[in-house]
Amino acid sequence: MSSNDLIVSLDIGTSKVRVIIGEISNGAINIIGVGSANSDGIRKGAIVDIDQTVQSIRSAVDHAERMVGISISEVYVGIAGNHIALQSNHGVVAVSNEDREIGEEDIERVLQAAKVVALPPEREIIGLLPKQFLVDGLTGIQDPRGMIGVRLEVECTIITGTKAAVHNLMRCVEKAGLRIAPSGIVLMSLASGMMALTKDEKMMGTVLADIGAGATTIAIFEGGSLAAVSTLPIGGDYVTSDICYGLKTQTEHAEMIKLKYGCARIDDAAPDVAFKVMRVGTNAEKEFSQADLAAIIEPRMQEIFQMIRQEVKRLGHLDKLNGYVLTGGSVTMPGVLSLAQVELESSVRIAVPDFIGVRDPSYSSGVGMIQYVTKYVRYRGSSSGPKKAAKSKSAASPAAASKPGVFEWVKNMFKEFI
Ligand SMILES: Nc1ncnc2c1ncn2[C@@H]1O[C@H](COP(=O)(O)OP(=O)(O)OP(=O)(O)O)[C@@H](O)[C@H]1O
Ligand SMILES: [Mg+2]
């Protein structure tokens, strides 16, 4: 990859819109800019107000642009939500070459064939994950190029979403004055999985749970591949709302108290750490201890972990599981890890991006997207790609970079997932 290409990711979350600018220099990623803005127009992870969402995107982008001194024109945008579905599919073609040697063109054709699937009219394909190739019935092939055969097959997973959700996402980005890069809609679970999970974890069966503000997104990786995804309409906002009722205070105040004093385990909370709360409908303040607060938070967090476990069971993956990896802003709270270990009855760890400036689980999806795009969408780059012009207002335009050849992409997919 040429030096100093820029990749911009956009994560439109329920609490925050986050923009991350990654600079790719000789294949290594540096995070050079971050912008965030409070999110309006998103409920439980879904866009419910386009104009408000556009405003939030614009302010997050402006923030990142000011930090780096560039003008952002193109972005990779994350997609998530309960409209996302996975389905297995199979593509078959006859090898075209007269000498029966499989070439890149055959691979491209078989992948196109695998995309031919009967979908309900309201759904569309967002992505394709190849799992294995078969040549004349021989399974387990990652690289069929140069092999001799008559029949080339591919087994893959197709990622689909509703046209309405994809449309709303694209509309918001475009109305914010940005272009979506080619292949620029990225499944956030896949991106976070790339950031957060090791190859072995993906192989052995791991649940990646992103506990955000309005939603908890579950992604199950098994056999090296993404096996299931699901979104629960519950997250940190649920905890904040309980604090509101429990302490009888305003939402904003409850959120501030949660961030400052919140603890997910009553046993870990300090009874002597106290804070005052302005109560709704009065001018009076009342004092509470961290232990009082933990008594409200713990049952809610327990419930979230129980729902995660139930969902993994419903999806049929509970028995073959190696463990859980947690990410998303809500896992920052002290005590979450030990509570999760008890509730999930399995090994659990927390994943945090390992880059300066974004060492926080709420940045996992955004950082993961930069890694994903670097590896699968743009890793070859080109000399005509965007460069960071020192301190000048250059356009960060990822689409200008050349896309990888289809086979390079497939091969990298296998390296990552198999
Ligand atoms: N230190 C902390 N203690 C407790 N909660 C925290 C802490 N830091 C962040 N949170 C919570 O994390 C949530 C935000 O997480 P995140 O930024 O991952 O969500 P989002 O991406 O905006 O929303 P979603 O993914 O649900 O659409 C909020 O509910 C916030 O209260
Ligand atoms: Mg999120």
TrEMBL record:
Membrane topology according to the record: Peripheral membrane protein
Positions of the SHS2 domain: 7-196
Function: Cell division protein that is involved in the assembly of the Z ring. May serve as a membrane anchor for the Z ring.
Top-level lineage group: Bacteria
InterPro entries attached to this UniProt entry: ATPase_NBD, Cell_div_FtsA, FtsA/MreB, SHS2_FtsA
The protein, known as: Cell division protein FtsA
Description of how the protein assembles with itself and partners: Self-interacts. Interacts with FtsZ.
Coiled coil: none
UniProt lineage: Bacteria, Bacillati, Bacillota, Bacilli, Bacillales
Pfam families in the cross-refs: FtsA, SHS2_FTSA
Presence of keyword Transmembrane: no
Record GO cellular component, one term: cytoplasmic side of plasma membrane
PANTHER family (alphabetical): CELL DIVISION PROTEIN FTSA, CELL DIVISION PROTEIN FTSA-RELATED
